[in-house]
Amino acid sequence: MSGPGYATPLDAMTKGPREKILYVVCVQPNSTEGKHDLLATVDVDPKSPTYCKIIHRTYTRYPNDELHHTGWNVCSSCHNVKGCHHSLKRDKLIMPSLTSKRIYVVDTGKNERAPEIHKVIEPSELSALDLSYPHTTHCLPSGEIMISTMGDNQENGKGEFVLIDAKTYKVKGTWTDGKTASFGYDYWYQPFHDVLIASEWTSPKVFKRGFSFDDVATDDIYGKSINVYSWKTRQLKQVIDLGRDGFAPLETRFLHNPRESQGYVGCAVTANVFRFYKKDDGTWDTHKVISVPPKKVSGWVGENMPGLMTDIIISLDDKYLYFSNWLHGDVRQYDITDRKNPKLTGQVFLGGSILSDSKITVVEDQELSSQPDPVFIKGKRLYGSPQMLQLSLDGTRLYVTSSLFSAWDRQFYPDMIEKGGFMAKLDVDVKNGGMSLDKDFLVEFNGEPDGPLLPHEMRYPGGDVTSDIWLVDEC
Q1: Mean pLDDT, all residues of the chain
Q2: In this structure, what CATH number is given to the domain that contains residue 273?
Q3: Which of 186, 235, 408, 434 is the most exposed place for a label (fewest CB within 10 A)?
Q4: Sheet holding 272-278, edge to edge
């Protein structure tokens, strides 16, 4: 008997349906006024009369939550694994809140176009474990939900994982056995290779105040390592220091093929991508495969502006890797058929800090001959910059939203705070490589009942390229 999701990544890519709605996490930048974050249901069906419109809003129950990343109660990791809970259905979206520690369980099964809050896991349950700032949610083949956390109760750095029962939604405890990592952020697991690999940002007390070059002047304030755990023993086995080229390794992506023992992590501050891989002796190592050079500028907070790589994703056939440079303002596509030598195949600018009409002047640029122009879709200007990415199952459509984290949004893109963020779409040439902006697709987040919103992560009801983890078939 098969469980939820798809048997393989290629099954999802070739047999999965075209997305008709997207769930978009939206942060309320004016939460001090008692306004709440929400989950927006966005119509992305071109045949629908409400195409590119928000058709439902599921509000959180409290202000000052700061919704960020989400995940499902179950996914493809439960599809064909012996002993898995095949009776479970993918019908609950788990929404952790960074600043409040609150975790919302949202029911999408009754009406996927109008989901509703099913349960709230209160902050006291994380506090009892000395955990704060819950981040990445993944479902496990055990029938549990696991969420990475980034801090302790004093908002110091602490890389740990909290376990939640996928039937009762009760917190069961922590995952790690023994020493925890210095910092936390994202993670990905592969039981076939007895590994869980986790990344690290910095302590919550540091990143919640915004970005400062002083914080990366030394080696101990920002994370610059990936942490390798044994999946079986839950113990931290290796801490791989990426060096100063690897400040703030954030999104962690294994190749989707569960037999592959390699993947990539994007380092935000330095805008570098590192490949991680398993060596013949069973240990893991890394090497840098992509580097985005900083731009020498005037009129900014520093003389050299990094790309600030904030999201990376991989297509289900493991052919293309995409990432966003939130400060420079571009989305890039790389062919990773040669795993050690990615090849740039597409680049589109969607805003950023170096636009031709900005107060910032680019003095020296190793890549561009001129500063990019502002981007307009349907006569509307995009404010902010490309940040979160979500790819259609078939790989032909790349959705992009603009918000990173409200404190950083406010620091670098105050116009987005005032006018709201955006969601745009890039059309992808999956055969030859390349991307182009869809000039007929725009979702605006400025005319909301409670004012402008900051759109962040996106999910499809049936799973996507970042929420599903596949395991080697054990049946």
Answers
A1: 95
A2: 2.130.10.10
A3: 235
A4: 249-254, 262-267, 272-278, 284-291
